[in-house]
Amino acid sequence: MSNYHLQNFADYLESYKKSIDSPEEFWADIATNHFIWQKKWDQVLNWDFKKPEINWFIGAKLNITENCIDRHLAENGKKTAILFEPNDPSESSQSITYEELAIRVNQVAKVLRAKGIEKGDRVCIYLPMIPELAISVLACARIGAIHSVVFAGFSAMALASRINDSSCKMVITSDGSFRGTKIVDLKGIVDEALTHTPSVQSVLVVKRTGSEIGWVAKRDFWLHTLIETASASCLPAIMDAEDPLFILYTSGSTGQPKGMVHTTAGYMVYTAYTFKNVFQYQGNDIFWCTADIGWITGHSYGVYGPLLNGATTVMFEGIPSHPDYSRFWQIIDKHKVTQFYTAPTAIRALAKEDLSYVLPYHLKSLKVLGTVGEPINDEAWYWYNDHIGKGNCPIVDTWWQTETGGILISPLPGITETIPTYATLPLPGVQPVLMNEQGEEIKEIQADGRLCLKFPWPSIARTIWGNHERYRETYFSTFNNLYFTGDGALRDQNGNYRITGRVDDIIIVSGHNLGTAPIEDAVNEHPLVAESAIVGFPHAVKGFALYGFITLKDENANQEALFNEINQFITNQIGAIAKLDKMQFTSGLPKTRSGKIMRRILLKIACNELDSLGDITTLLNPEVVEEIIQNRLT
Ligand code: WTA
Fold first, then answer.
1. From ligand 1's centre to the CA of 400, what distance in Å?
2. Which residue segment(s) compose the domain that 466 sits in?
3. Are 446 and 579 within one domain?
4. Is 442 found in the same domain as 360?
């Protein structure tokens, strides 16, 4: 049996057993046979969840881009690495072969070096979904710079705080981005952000929209001009297995977003292995992950996982509704996509539209469908299965997190059973446990509890940039000696997992994780707002949407105007993705006697679960609950 490619259920069982009985041997075998190392490791694993400290492939030396690009050149240089589909369907798509990718990555790497970027420096990438985004990511990795991609839907303030958190030396952006019929002024957003970011020395600008933009001499440079004189070869920096590869920010329950740090070797081995198996990628398959590279899904399964396997990966610049709701299906037929990976929120949004947007398309090339980012409901699962997969494509409901780097729980298509709404079984190397609220492991097979992992897998994030204590506190302090995911889960009698959702103050809106605290901070910035509490309520397309309970300093204020103004504050501080769907202005918020806002009660009211409010008599102000219920927005 090849450990790397699981081909049947017996392979899965055998690999799973081996990965638990002798994890070091299991991962060493995979790492040895499928990657290029400049130097092998001295020790496979060293870990301690208490500190926490996790190291994989200790002492090994490598460069991930040699594994993503160089090693495919001899046999597959002419194969398409990136298939770019622009926002405007009348603009031609672009095929970038592995040979061309090597040249373009090396050129940008040379430009970065010429602009003073050295190994270990942080580079912020704020770009639309154009090939230069993937190329910039790889160029950073080529020279050992740490990339920090910020999703180009975040506001100037959100961008500035991420740049400052990791003191980025450079920003790579574009003159603008095309989204449907809109042009977004990305460079303008960067210019605004950079008025608050002392660490940034230079900005590289990709020309995409041709828009008029502001320019700061000696700081801003057109990338295409610098590339003209850049050499097409660039020796890869030799990295230590545990050198950081990238930082990616994710929302926390409180405070600033967390800069999750992923390191080189473990991330490489795990994303390559899971890409191969979860999608069963073969030969000349065309893989398409719709996630933006600004999120972990785009990092691991839009760029690194596919390229590590010499695959063809589709990159789509636009949105599913432009020019109309058939765009995804059009692209699948046009490029003969074999594996399609998207989010439940996109499926729900498309399922709500007329079936006539789907019916004209054959979708015959498809073999595997995937979902990620939030629980998928039954209805969406069946629509995806029946209308897109035509009953012939297994759906891999993949559960994982920014922090986990790669997929941890998922069916293997054609190998393990799929069950609607279940992420099903752990992949080899993954040891889930369910814990009760008393902090004990639930031993019964059929159970409902908090999902934890009791053993490290190679791509677990190693720390939070600049704040190791927060890393310990967030993930390793709730349960003794376990990594706590923040998710609740059910386990059925056969050991299949169904993720039920977050059990903390993170709300997943349209597949994006949002912490309530920063949104409340933004709302409270409005001069007329006294206090606020944000909760999530179920939404047919977004999964969850945001409901704000807000008390005002002046009860006579114009509430309609406030709705827009407060959402504008949120858009400025965070981005439009965090806007509130509902705002209820109230005379007070329910509080405990010690003055803590009782979000649990507000959550029940927003979700219309009035029967289970619990005891409110011990509150400081029980009368306000009655008022809120009376005026609740449905
Ligand atoms: C949720 C995305 C149910 C979960 C890769 C997790 C899911 C959070 C699934 C991480 C799934 C992700 N079923 N819930 N298949 N996949 N989640 O960091 O709550 O953006 O903790 O990573 O999304 O979101 P993140």
1. 5
2. 15-64+263-502
3. no
4. yes
Ligand 1, atom 22, residue with closest C-alpha:
401
Which of 290, 342, 347, 374 should be mutated for ligand 1, with most atoms under 8 A from CB? 374
Q: Work out the average pLDDT over 310-325.
A: 98
Q: 6 in a domain, yes or no?
A: no
**502 in contact with ligand 1, CB cutoff 6 A:** yes
353 located within any domain: yes
Residues 424, 466 within the same domain: yes
Mean pLDDT for the chain overall:
96
**CATH code for position 415:** 3.40.50.12780
Ligand 1 within 6 A of CB of 375: yes
Measured in whole angstroms, the distance separating CA 392 from the mean position of its chain's CA atoms is 28
Residues 155 and 139 in one domain: yes
The reported pLDDT for the residue numbered 255 is: 76
pLDDT tens, position by position, 357-385: 999 999 999 999 999 999 999 999 999 99
Amino acid letter, 241: A
Would 290 be classed as within a structural domain?
yes
Q: What is the pLDDT at residue 2?
A: 62
**487 ligand 1 Cβ < 6 A:** yes
For position 476, what pLDDT does the model report? 98
Q: In terms of domains, do 270 and 220 share one?
A: no
- Separation in Å, CA 169 to CA 148, 186, 203, 216, 248: 11, 18, 9, 16, 16
pLDDT reported for residue 617: 85
485 lines ligand 1 (CB under 6 A): yes
pTM: 0.96
H helical segments located in 291-423: 296-298, 305-308, 327-335, 344-351, 378-383
Token duo for residue 631: 């005026």
CA–CA dist 176, 382 (Å, integer): 38
Phi-psi region of 290 (alpha: psi -120 to 50; beta: other; left: phi over 0): alpha
Please work out whether the CB of residue 249 comes within 6 Å of at least one atom of ligand 1.
Answer: no
Strand 339-342 to strand 286-289: parallel, antiparallel, or no bridges (unpaired)?
Answer: parallel
CATH number of the domain residue 169 falls in: 3.40.50.980
The string of pLDDT tens digits covering residues 34-44 is 999 999 999 99
Q: Stretch 148-175: mean pLDDT, rounded? A: 97
Residues 227 and 338 in one domain: no
Ligand 1 pocket check for 372: Cβ under 6 Å: yes
- For atom 10 of ligand 1, which residue has the closest CA? 401
For 238-268, write each residue's pLDDT tens digit. 999 999 999 999 988 777 899 999 999 999 9
Q: How far apart are CA 497 and CA 287, in angstroms?
A: 26
Same domain, yes or no: 305 and 440: yes
- 44 plus 106 within the same structural domain: no
Count of domains forming the chain: 3
Does ligand 1 come within 6 angstroms of the Cβ of 374? yes
- Domain membership of residue 249 (yes or no) is no
CA distances from 402 to 374, 407, 474, 534 (A): 13, 10, 14, 23
Question: Region 201-227: what's the mean pLDDT?
Answer: 98
pLDDT for the residue numbered 615: 83
